[in-house]
Amino acid sequence: MTITAPDLHRDQGGPDNNGSSRLAMGVRRADGGFTLIELMVVVMIIAVLLAIAMPSFGRFRHSAQDTSAQATLTIADKHARGMVLQNGGAFPSTRDSVTFLLTTEPVLVWVEHRDPSTGPGVISVDEDNGGDDLVFAVLSDSGTCWYLRVNVNLEVSDRSFDRNAASCEAHDFQGKPALGWDGDGIVGGDKDKDKDKDKDKDKDKDKDKDKG
């Protein structure tokens, strides 16, 4: 039996009339590899998933960074209370306050009012309202400056923040409105306003009942 040239190519696995067309159409090869089209589809799917996940990841990261800065201010509040008790019910001067805080909490860095906080482990300290209040400022890694004011009655009188602060200094909080924040880094000002409105509504209802 005589084997012709085309038959020889087919027997040796060479290209035939249909082989080139199959490869051109992107059919998977016999060796189990992937075609260019299949790889492009996988890359596109990964790109879409990343586009969906990245914004959420950024928000979660900023929220965690802000929570860390607020936790530092909670520590500052605790030590401020101890300082008032040891100082006869009053805050000492800013310099003496910083000295006291450096002694009681050496893990953190405490700086005087006009020295800025440069991170969540550095707290700027300043006295306010004639020494009746003590103000703390901490810079979050998210870039937001968080403020806390504590009065001599051992109450947290004001909480605030500044997302565009050029420098995170405790002195800058003097005279600024308290925007509020809670433990999750969410602004509490609007929530407080809503609560006040609800209280006013309840008072009005009580008045109507008394009139009736």
Structural write-up:
With 212 residues, this protein is an alpha+beta fold. The chain has a domain of 136 residues. Helix content is 46%, strand content 15%. A hairpin with a 4-residue loop joins strand 2 and strand 3. The longest helix is centred in the N-terminal third of the chain and has 51 residues. It is elongated and about 80 Å long.
Short description:
The protein is of the alpha+beta class and 212 residues long. The protein contains 5 helices and 5 strands.
Q: Indicate the overall shape.
A: elongated
H/E series: HHHHEEEEEH
Main sheet record: 5 strands, mixed
Question: What distance lies between the first and last C-alpha atoms, to the nearest angstrom?
Answer: 117 Å
Strand content: 15-25%
> Treating each run of at least 4 consecutive H or I residues as one helix, how many helices?
5
Low-confidence stretches: 21-27, 183-197
Radius of gyration, in Å, reads 33 Å
Overall average pLDDT: 75
Structural class: alpha+beta
User: How many DSSP-defined strands?
Assistant: 5
